[in-house]
Specification:
Blueprint: H1 9-23, H2 27-41, H3 48-53, H4 61-71, H5 80-88, H6 93-107, H7 115-132, E1 134-135, H8 160-178, E2 180-181, H9 189-198, H10 203-224, E3 236-240, H11 246-259, E4 268-271, H12 283-295, E5 299-303, H13 317-332, E6 338-343, H14 345-353, H15 356-361, E7 364-368, H16 373-386, E8 390-391, H17 393-404, H18 415-432, H19 441-445, E9 446-447, H20 465-474
Parallel strand pairs: 3-6, 3-7, 4-5, 5-6, 8-9
Antiparallel strand pairs: 1-2
Helix pairs in contact: 1-2, 1-6, 2-4, 2-6, 6-7, 6-8, 7-8, 7-18, 9-11, 12-13, 16-18, 18-20
Amino acid sequence: MSSAGGTSLQDALSALLTVATRAGVAEDVARAEALSLAAALAESAPGAPADWASVTPGAGTQDFFDSAVRGRRWRGAPTAVLTDLVARGSAEKVPYAEALAEVASAACTLGEPTMRVIGNASVAAAAQLQAAGARRLEAGGPPSPANALTPGHAGTAGSSTGAGTSSVAGAVESAAQQAAVEAVPERSVEELLAELDDLTGLEKVKREVHRQVAVLRVEKLRAEAGLKSPTITRHLVFTGNPGTGKTTVARLVSGIYKALGLLSKGQLIEVDRSELVAGYLGQTATKTAEVVASAAGGVLFIDEAYSLTAGELGADQYGREAVDTLVKEMEDRRDDLVVIVAGYPEPMEDFIAANPGLASRFRTTIGFEDYTDEELTDILTGLAKGADYELTPEALDQFEVVLASTRRDRSFGNGRFARNMLEAAIGRHAWRLRDVTAPTTEQLRQILAADLTDEELHPEGERSTAEVTIEKATEDSAPELGPEQGETA
C-alpha cells in the first residue's frame, strides 16, 4: 500500500467513524459502507485486495470483490448513510460527505492503482460532496493533480503510476477538506419537481411522476378535509435497462413524498437480493425485516427485484421468504413506507405476478427508455461539469464517434456508460499532465479528445481506438451494477 501524498485507508476510516459517532450512525454500518466504497473504486488496481484486507480483520480476496459489488452504486451517487443524513437535515451531513471523499482519496493508495481508479475516486468524491451541499473548489484551487506526476516521486517504488495516483489522491483529499459549505434548506415539492424536470430525457417518466404527485396531493387534501378518499397505493414499479435514471428518480420521489407529508424522513435505501437474503432458512425473514426497518419513513428501492422470485428452477425458498416478509412489512408500515422495485420489463411482470400480495400493492409501473446519443452527450457534459472538468468540442466529437460504434443491447450501460467514459478520461487526463510542472487552470479543467482514446497504450494495428474505448466504458456495465445520469439502476 502506498499512502505517500494521500490519506491511508485506515486513517480515512478512523476519521469517518468519528463523524459517524457524532451523527448517531452505528460504527459497523459506517465502516461497512466505507469499505465497500473503497473496494468499488480500487477494484481494477493490482494488489488492492490484499491492501484492503489489511485494514479489514478476517477478510480475504473474495470479501474485497463482494464489497466492491455492493459499493459500485456509490461511485456516482451518495451512499446510503449520507442519503439518510441529508434527508434528516443532520448537521453532520457535510462532515460525513467530506470523510467519504477522503475514503475515495484513500482508495487511490490501495495496491498499484490504475488511471481508472483516479477517475473513479474523483467522480465519487464529487458525488458525495454535492449531495451534502458542499461546494467543490474550482480547478486550480487545490494542489494540482499533475504537480507530482513525475516518475520517482512518492508512490509505489519504481512506478510512475504510483507517483501519479498518490498526488491525485492528495488533490482529491485536499478538495474535500477545503470544500466551502453552503446551507441546504429543506426543499419544497415544486423545487424537487423542477429538479426532476431538469434531468436529461425521461419525458414519459416526468409526466407520470407529475401525475402521481397531483393524485396523492389531492388525496391528502381530501383526507384533511374529512372527505372520503379511495386508498391509493404509493408503491411503484420502475422498468428499464441499466443506467436509465431509475435510482435518480427514486431519490427525488422519496424527497417529494416527504415534502408532501406522506413520509416522515424521506431517505432512500437501495438494496438488491444479496442484502435481503441470508445464508440459512429463517434468517432471511429477520434480515429482510431489518432492511425494511431501516427504510421506514422513506423509500426502499429494490434493484433487480425479480431475482427474488426467478431462477433456472423458479423461485427458491430463500427468495420466497424474503418476498413474504416484504409483503408483511409493507402492510405493517403502510403509512410511512414506500417500496419501489426495479428491473427489466418482462422479468418484473413475472415478479409482480409471482405473489398476490405484490400484485395488490404495486399497481403503477413507470417505464424508463434508453437515452439517445444526444442525451448521453448531455449527461457526460453534466457529469464533467459536476467534477470541475470541461470537455472540448473535439472531445465531444470523439464521444459521438464512440457512441456510434457501440452496440446497444440489454447490457448497454446508458448513463453509466457516460460515467465510465468520464472516469477513464479523468485518469488519462492526469497521466497526460504527469510531466507538466505548473499546469494552467485551463489544462487542469479540459478533457481533450485524446483522453477519450487509448492510442498510446495500444499501437496502431493491434486494436482500433473505438474498440479499446468501448471496452473501457462497458467493462462494468452489467445489470447488477448499481448509479445514473451517472448513477446506476
